[in-house]
Amino acid sequence: MNEISLNHYLFVSCALFFIGVYGFLTRRNLITMLMAIELILNSININFIVFNKFLFPDKLDGLFFTIFIITIAAAEAAVAIAIIINLYRNYKTIDVEETNTMKF
Amino acid sequence: MKAIIAATIIGVIMMFASILSNNKSGIVSLATVLFFFLFGINIWEVYESINATGVAAPAYLNNMMSLDSFAIWFSMLMSGCALLYILLLGKEIAKVGKHVGEYFALIAFIMVGIYLLAGYSNMLMLFIGIEILSIPQYILAGSDKRNLKSTEASLKYFLMGSFSTGILLMGIAMLYGATGSFDIINFRMLQTDALNPLALSGILFLIIGLGFKVSAAPMHMWTPDVYDGSPTPFTAFMSTIVKAGVFVAFLRLFHASFGNLTNHWMMIVAVITATTLFIGNITAVFQQSVKRMLAYSSIAQAGFMLFAILSVNATAWQGIVIYAVAYSVATIGMFAVLIKLKDYTYDGFNGLAKKEPALAFFTTIFLMSLAGIPLTGGFMAKYFVLLAAVQQGQVMWLVIFALIMAAVSVYYYFKVIIAMYFKTGEAELNHEVTGYDKLMLGITCLLVILIGLMPQLLLNL
Amino acid sequence: MNTLMLAVEQSTPINYLPVVLQLLVAIGFVIFMVGVTHLLGPKRKTADKLINFESGIPQVGNARQPMAIKYFLVAILFVLFDVEVIFFYPYAINFKELGTEGFMAVLMFVAFFLCGFIYIIKKGALEWEE
């Protein structure tokens, strides 16, 4: 009972993932949406590391996957910030609801 | 492997070329030469792989890449398409903004992603390939910085793209939990009868994640806006070569790893295919702008390419190669014509046949290929993917549905042809069509017809 | 799923006792010191003492001003380069085992890194004044 088992970790990761998805779908502020995406990616990182530690401790595959996810998430965030700044310069807002020049 | 290294170095060279020189046409020529060089290296690799028959496919990077003959052949074809793209649209790329060198650098980096996706044998490479492919596209979509539509396109692409990356990664994580490996060969050990629920949901997440990237139907909503808003030269690249690259990754994963689990995912992909065909074709009918119509048509064509994933057999691999090339060549040609026009609506094409007969003729060939009229590449492509589905034999209803949808697609493609030939009007051009443009478009046209007459040329596997 | 819980190390609440003790000592020391200075120190309140201290310079304006966009550029570049360093950690641990090949790989990585860095400098992304 006192042990923190795989299921506990998976619960945390699952909760984070769906908080991220919920935030992504409901929030309309771009920075918040970016944070939601980071939350999703980090929940996946937890998943990888936990699977690695509990199920397959003989190899470090999952751990290295997280390193790649972290770096690529940083690259993505850099591009995202550039896009958001450009958007702000053009629209004077970072609300996605305002960006609707293209409607069918 | 040589091509991957070469493409990376070309990207770096282009980055520095933009620092050292402000001469736009010089940079375009440099890019053209370098992409010729890249194509040459690809041909060299193909030559080597033909000579090395009987030897097992060379594995690189600790068995994370296995460049079999298919991967090398497909990389070569995609480099050829990229070269054609740069020859046709290089000057237009230079007109998008001031950072010309960077645009070509990003295109070279995208090519690296495509090579990785063509020959990956490890989920890590799939992930990295997709990201190398996607991140430059977010930038390219927003490269017209002062244009509101371009900014919005890049924003939407980024949001949808990174969200789908998250879902894709969740799928990979679940498969890792089920099998303890990232090697796509090891996924074959998944039991068919008593499948681990973790693996099953992993496969589902992967279908959704990759479906986002190839714009399959319930996950397609970003496509029209992104393709419409992005600068036209980059739309041409994103909707053709990149999409084909992601499709090959999709195909490799689902054939090599989950080929024995078809009863678990077949129905899901079949429904996705049907929805993609329906939404793509029916919505395309109601479009006013040709550029937006081409965006929806790219969704519809993705529906046909999904047939290759559905039918797990050798014909599907042939089909995806022919489809990728035939569709890419015809669409790049179509965009090269579109970009010459001032007005992207159907009315903008009115009377083009009188003003520029050659241009109108080429457009007709491209559109016929996209619609799948016999003697063009598009027909052979559709024939091969549908043949694969027929051979597989489980989804006959879907084949019939696809044929009906192909008939619908004729309507909106021919609307452009009718506008060009039978409507009176003054089609306004951005600038004069030079002899070089006509020559390149003519070559593209010849390629389209050549693929239609001799598709086996593309199957030299 | 039952086989999954093998590799957990034994950890009972008693193992955390030293941590709790450390925490208690730290908190107690802080409370003690704050209390003692409060009781013993002299109390002189002047207007100068209550304003924010800005290295001896008279304070100017409000601190909550929007930053220049340049700042974000530098910040984002910092994040990028900072995160890429993560790849050195696995290399540092396996430095001896990886040998020359690993060294070459890292050298190549750093070379690409350097390419990016030179590119940034040449593009003028790090110039503050314009």
Verbal overview:
The complex is a heterotrimer of chains A (104), B (461) and C (130). With 104 residues, chain A is mainly alpha-helical. Chain A has a single domain, classed as Helix Hairpins. Chain A contains three helices and no strands. Chain B has one domain. A two-stranded antiparallel sheet of chain B has the order 1-2. Chain B starts with a helix and ends in an 8-residue tail after the last helix. By secondary structure, chain C is mainly alpha-helical. Chain C has a single domain, classed as NADH:ubiquinone/plastoquinone oxidoreductase, chain 3 (Methane Monooxygenase Hydroxylase, Chain G, domain 1). Helix content of chain C is 61%, strand content 0%. The interface between A and B is large, with 39 and 39 residues.
Characteristic key phrases:
heterotrimer, A: about 100 residues, mainly alpha, Helix Hairpins, 3 helices, about 0% strand, elongated, C: about 130 residues, Methane Monooxygenase Hydroxylase, Chain G, domain 1, 5 helices, disordered N terminus
What is this entry, summarized?
With about 100 residues, chain A is mainly alpha-helical. Chain A has helices spanning about 5-25, 30-55, 60-90. Chain A has a single domain, classed as Helix Hairpins, CATH 1.10.287.3510.
Major sheet size, sense and barrel closure of chain C: none
CATH fold field value of chain C? Methane Monooxygenase Hydroxylase, Chain G, domain 1
- The rounded Rg of chain B comes to 21 Å
- Helix/strand order of chain B: HHEEHHHHHHHHHHHHHHH
Strands of chain C, count:
0
Number of domains of chain B: 1
> Which shape of chain C, going by the Cα principal axes?
flat
Outline of chain B:
globular
Number of separate helices of chain B: 17
**Separate helix tally of chain C:** 5
- Sequence of secondary-structure elements of chain C: HHHHH
Secondary structure tally: strands of chain B: 2
**Unreliable residue stretches of chain B:** none
Query: What is the CATH H-level superfamily of chain C?
Result: NADH:ubiquinone/plastoquinone oxidoreductase, chain 3
CATH class of chain C: Mainly Alpha
Oligomerization: heterotrimer
Radius of gyration of chain C equals 27 Å
Question: Uncertain segments of chain C of ≥5 residues (pLDDT<50)?
Answer: 1-8
- Residue fraction in strands of chain B: under 5%
Can you give the mean pLDDT of chain C? 79
Q: Helix fraction of chain B?
A: over 70%
